[in-house]
Amino acid sequence: MAYEAIKSSNSSLSRQKKRPLEDAIDRVLQVRSREREDSEDSEAALEEDESEKPQDERFLLNRQMVKHWNVEPASQPTSEPPSKKKRRVETDDEDTKMLDTPQNGTAPSDTKSTDKTTKEQQKKTPKATRYTVEENVALPPVGGLSDVYRSLLGQTGFRLRRPELYRGNSGLVPGILLSGPPGVGKKSLIRTLAAELSAPIVSLKACFQDPERMEKSLTEAVDAALSISPSIVFIEDLHLYMGKPGGSTHNEHHQKAIFLFERQMERIAQHDISNGGVLAMATTSRLTDIDPTVLRYGLFERTVPLRVPDRDARVDILKVLTRDLELAENVDFTELAKLMHGFVGADIATVIRLARQASINRIVSRQNNDYDRFLQLELDGTSVRKLADGALDLCTMLASYPESSPDDTICAEDFKSVIGGFVPSLRKEGFTVVPSITWDQVGALRAVRDQLNMSIIGPIKDPELYRAFGMQRPAGALLWGPPGCGKTLVAQAVANEAQASFILINGPELLNKYVGESERAVRELFQRARSSTPCILFFDEIDSIVPRRENSSTDASARVVNALLTELDGAQDRSGIYVIGTTNRPDMIDSAMLRPGRLSVRLFVDLPTADERVDILNTIYKTCHSEATAAELARLPGVALDPRCHDFSGADLGGLHTKAAESALRRWMTKEKTVKEIDEVDWETALESTQRSVSNPETYRKLNVKLGKAN
User: Residue ranges under compositional bias (Basic and acidic residues) (predicted)?
Assistant: First the structure.
């Protein structure tokens, strides 16, 4: 084993860890293997050249004379000559054979052809090219991206058909980078553009995967692109090959890749453009991980963001992808699009495929049932099964079916059954579905509702109205108060009312002990939000994420505060991104976070009053008992106004209802009652065993007064 041999050769290596040493040995062996292959290629080429070189038959007489110089007299005892002399004799034998050949040069052709064939067989097969060329194929329009498509069509058309317009800019034709979440349609958009402009696509992806042959592979690929111009050189997932130093995807070969690609772009700029230009295009789902030098002038100067499709875009995608399918009349694209919030184009395509499979399963199941019922029929008192005597099979039955029927189409139920159990790809990236919580499920809190309608819901639903009054900057809101008062519930209801993307963030998701990782997590978070606007970022227990920097116990917390302040101040476009934070201790939050333009809207969510307790308990009961009778609802005010419910939070009232329901269930199971409802006895049992969870509500009220004076 190489590892054991190397380790035993040097005592200092015995103190090294096994895995890094094995990795180093593997890399050395790979390099040596490639060197050996290159050496074999060179030797094979030399042998081929030597075999094809004609034999020089001049100076034969001189060689005949020279060969006798090293021949010993016959009288001397024979002994084995040195290796050099032996080699010389062997060479002379070959010369002798050459002398036996007629002077007219007609050597035996069989020998030459055999030697040449043998050497050709020994020569190593040349390595295949790394790039691929995709010819133009007619493609349908890309659904949900019509505006972006029209804009890009003009830009790419000028870059390919009129590259001379860029000669004043040192001849460099700026490349175009498409960024967006996975599955949003970046590559499909480029393929559609290429087909529309009759420009072949030369993919460079594999050229970067072999660092040793990278320069040669890129040169060959660009040569191919120039020979078939106008054309597009395409790099998929640019962040994997040109990552920035310190990024999660960066490695030691990325700087070399950037340098070589820049040289190829300069070659393109110096090439004759009479037949058309060559445009560089790329895609990425992690824009923040790309080296900034790649985004400068002359490389990928133009970045086009693709967002998560909204409801109208999802309707368009559904229409495009189902254009060749037979759909039932009850399929409503608008209704389906509403159920697919957060779905990208790839997700919708998968849903359509699964819905089609569901319809096929439904048809097969129905035909199997029809076949079974057919076999159970009786003709003249004898069953069909007995008459058939095994000759009737399901294939015969299916052959008698018409080729199509109204029941064979894909119906709305097929789509809904698939959507209900489908997990969209963005869910794995931290996105959540639009919360199902509505304002009807939130009791009381009227003042909080009105303020959030003004600050967040209104700008999302009618941005033009707010823009007319000069309110263009998205607001941030901080909900604070005693625990259990419905702060998280309110944030979910806001997202549902506005039909906005909703991203829930907890502290551990952002905090990282490694320098730079926390800031990167914040940048990626806002980048995801930008790709799915309008979007609500919900920071639960935000005081654990952005504590006061002077009191912070770790540098990671301070770095997160700085990164969040940078994003909230709009270092990059923040339009359509709204931030909601919740906390029990606003005094523990860094004061810079509470300044205007950040979390400037502060809403105190206090414990409910007596009337609000009645409203909250009614809401809880109606949510849990959809068929509640008037008698049941009539008992609720007396329970909520009971002195024992004083200073109960919304969570306390929910726990009170749970205990009352348990009491009712227990009594029904023991036959103490025959009606499945919660009566006065059950409520009394619950009141006796429930206590308030907030022990010091006055502390929060005093803090509210203090913060109000500070404002």
Answer: 112-123
Residue 245 lies in a domain: yes
Q: pLDDT band at 660, cuts 50/70/90?
A: very high
Instruction: Note whether 570 and 627 are same-domain residues.
Output: no
* Domain hosting residue 248, numbered range: 132-307
User: Residue 655: CB partners within 8 Å, gap ≥ 6?
Assistant: 690
Alpha-carbon distance of 397 to 663, in angstroms, equals 58
Whether residue 47 is contained in a domain is answered as: no
Average pLDDT taken over every residue of the chain: 77
What is the mean predicted confidence (pLDDT) over 176-180?
Answer: 90
Q: What is the CATH number of the domain that holds 473?
A: 3.40.50.300
Report DSSP state, residue 183.
T
Domain edge (last residue) among 560, 583, 604: 604
pLDDT exceeds 60 at position 649: yes
DSSP 329: T
* Span 570-587, pLDDT tens digits: 656 677 888 898 888 888
CATH of the domain at 361: 1.10.8.60
Residue 459, classified by CB atoms within 10 Å of its CB into exposed (0-12), middle (13-18) or buried (19+), is buried
Whether 506 and 600 map to the same domain: the answer is: yes
Which residues pair with residue 583 across a beta bridge? 480
Share of the chain above pLDDT 90, in %: 8
Closest residue by Cα to residue 614 from 622, 603, 626: 622
∠ CA 70-74-77, nearest 5°, is 95
**Same domain flag for 520 and 653:** no
What DSSP line would sit under 342-398, residue for residue? T--HHHHHHHHHHHHHHHHHHHHHHHHHHHHHHHT-EETTEEHHHHHTT---HHHHH
In which band, very low, low, confident or very high, does the pLDDT at 84 lie, cut at 50, 70 and 90?
Answer: very low
Q: Rounded distance, CA 281 to CA 270, Å?
A: 19
Pair 592, 632: CB distance under 8 Å: no
| pTM metric for this prediction | 0.63
490 and 605 Cβ atoms separated by less than 8 Å: yes
Asked if 361 and 488 sit in the same domain, the reply is no
Domain membership flag for residue 76: no
Higher pLDDT, 340 or 443: 340
298 and 189 belong to one structural domain: yes
Q: Are residues 501 and 636 in the same domain?
A: no
Q: Assess whether 634 and 554 both reside in one domain.
A: no
Q: How many structural domains comprise the chain?
A: 4
pLDDT tens-place string over residues 436-449: 788 877 877 888 88
Domain boundary among 555, 574, 604: 604
Mean pLDDT of 632-654: 89
* Token pair in block for residue 554: 């770790």
CB 342 within 8 A of CB 429: no
Alpha carbon 18 to its chain centroid, in Å, reads 35
**387, 381, 579, 388: which is closest to 477 by C-alpha?**
579
* Residue 94: per-residue pLDDT: 44
Q: Is residue 500 part of a domain?
A: yes
Place of tokens 């509210």: 704
**Which candidate, 606, 550, 579, 602, places its Cα nearest to that of 708?**
602
Q: Is the peptide bond before 230 cis (omega within 30 degrees of 0)?
A: yes
Distance CA 95, CA 89 (A): 10
